């Protein structure tokens, strides 16, 4: 039984700061229920050590596995991702947890390589939200390395992960995620539309877009069939500057590339080291340098 907070009103600035402090000292409200390429579990403390001291609301336009948002669990967060399968899964975890785990148990009982490819080939369009969410979670946990990758037609195309006994869910994790979702507003929009509709002065916004590729082998752009191309990166950098001018406090992650340094040159850039565990070609594991972009001034929100 999931107990849901009844309200989505934001916490006070002091409560928000406390939530950041709690994560910095090792306490998380909830953890991701999916493995997600570019997930920020390992970096979340580094990122939050740059959080503003006071802020009104927390916004995350590229939610993915939601490592930061779930760890914080602040009431009234505005969370968004353009991936409809992913956002449907968040909603189903919150609304229909029992039906979801029943369906996941059914899939787990049938698990094999052949069954994986059978489920992968099914068209999710005709499914109920619960069936769609179960398929999404099953493919994420039974597929190769937790990747989410689609072809140009938008079909999930990750190969079998060769784990004979994948763990599809943990009840405590799902319950904690459900509580955070119930206290948040979750949407499925392109990031720019989400930010233009919602961002305002005093917001702390964490932006974790698909990264600028560091080499021809790194291809994490295909979270969606539209991909995230160079002109998207340019538009995002422009929007970052607009958010700063608005009086919000955006922190953005990206890879350490000449293009990143050029796009964000007018802001503060901090280099951080990250060990990747998900890599599409199994290369480049080990320390990878990436950057955090911060506003140059505290924007009236003490940092
Ligand atoms: C690097 S991942 C975010 C990882 C996340 N911080 C975590 O801890 O798991 C980038 C996310 O951006 C989403 N995305 C890609 N293009 C987008 C767009 N145009 N608007 C909104 N979200 C987008 C992808 O679906 C993906 O989940």
TrEMBL record:
One of its GO terms (biological process) is DNA restriction-modification system. Its EC number is 2.1.1.72. PROSITE patterns: N6_MTASE. It comes from the Bacteria. SUPFAM superfamilies: S-adenosyl-L-methionine-dependent methyltransferases. It catalyses: a 2'-deoxyadenosine in DNA + S-adenosyl-L-methionine = an N(6)-methyl-2'-deoxyadenosine in DNA + S-adenosyl-L-homocysteine + H(+). S-adenosyl-L-methionine binds at residues 36, 40, 81, 208. Keywords: Methyltransferase, S-adenosyl-L-methionine, Transferase. Coiled coil: none annotated. The keyword S-adenosyl-L-methionine applies. PANTHER family: DNA ADENINE METHYLASE. Belongs to the N(4)/N(6)-methyltransferase family. This is Site-specific DNA-methyltransferase (adenine-specific). It comes from Deinococcus ruber. The lineage of its organism: Bacteria, Thermotogati, Deinococcota, Deinococci, Deinococcales. The gene is dam.
